[in-house]
């Protein structure tokens, strides 16, 4: 099944996206990811799914009102008559139907269409009939930032508003496992705050210290963790050296853990609109990856979001296979 959807115009100046292109190329080497596309009822969301299909990254199942999906396809001048479509009356019903496909073993990922994030996440995290695991769900932006050789992961900027220390433990572990799936090695995690010293008046510095000790005790695994670190000395070696910070992470972090959603959202958008970065979005911690795309995303960003999900799903399958041996 193939289709070519017209690409949307780039929202900002065009540039090379070597980091995203490497992710897309890696995903193309894997079997297409069976993906339930939730409520793809506008040109942007349906076009994103069709672009990823044409690239060989996903194998989509369209879930939503059949008439609205057909109207979006007509606007794109695309024939979807041979596509699997699960008819659902509205966006909430589409989210529920997509989750049911995963639970039935018919889909291995979800992809957000033209509905609110809280609608799809409400179905995912529902206690009865959802896709919960023992792990807290969290969001990561996988950012293509000019000047950085590897993607920069920022978490959490979209799901957990004011996470507790226990929730931050899961947020960090989710991000580490995502970085491993993206073949980032070693994974260097900076726990961000406004300063690099412990200050009881700044709760995020206390959380950072606790998370580092959790890593020392094996409660967080797979990455090198340090914090608190201010943003400058987390990503810039010169800034770290000026402050005489001796750390295997300072100046070299590839995962940035923010204190709360507001900080993460502002950091990601600052990089996007002031540094010409792109932000591929994904939710982790559920039974399957949840792809989050925006109507403002460029084509390569949408493809990268799908590629990230494909690589993560493959890593999770490999981990499960090893555990069962």
Topology:
Elements: H1 18-28, E1 33-38, H2 43-54, E2 58-64, H3 66-76, E3 85-87, H4 91-103, E4 109-112, H5 117-125, E5 138-144, E6 152-155, H6 165-181, E7 188-192, H7 203-216, E8 224-229, H8 231-235, H9 237-242, E9 255-257, H10 261-274, E10 278-284, E11 290-292, H11 299-324
Parallel strand pairs: 1-2, 1-4, 2-3, 4-11, 6-9, 7-8, 7-9
Antiparallel strand pairs: 5-6, 5-10, 10-11
Provide key terms for this protein:
11 helices; 325 residues; 17% strand; Rossmann fold; globular; Isopropylmalate Dehydrogenase; single chain; alpha/beta; 11-stranded mixed sheet; 2 domains
Notes on the protein architecture:
- It is a single chain.
- The protein is of the alpha/beta class.
- Helix content is 42%, strand content 17%.
- It contains eleven helices and eleven strands.
- It has helices spanning 18-28, 43-54, 66-76, 91-103, 117-125, 165-181, 203-216, 231-235, 237-242, 261-274, 299-324, and strands spanning 33-38, 58-64, 85-87, 109-112, 138-144, 152-155, 188-192, 224-229, 255-257, 278-284, 290-292.
- An eleven-stranded mixed sheet has the order 3-2-1-4-11-10-5-6-9-7-8, with helices on both faces.
- Helix 7 (203-216) links the parallel strand 7 and strand 8 (224-229).
- Helix 1 packs across helix 11 (299-324) and helix 4 packs parallel to helix 5.
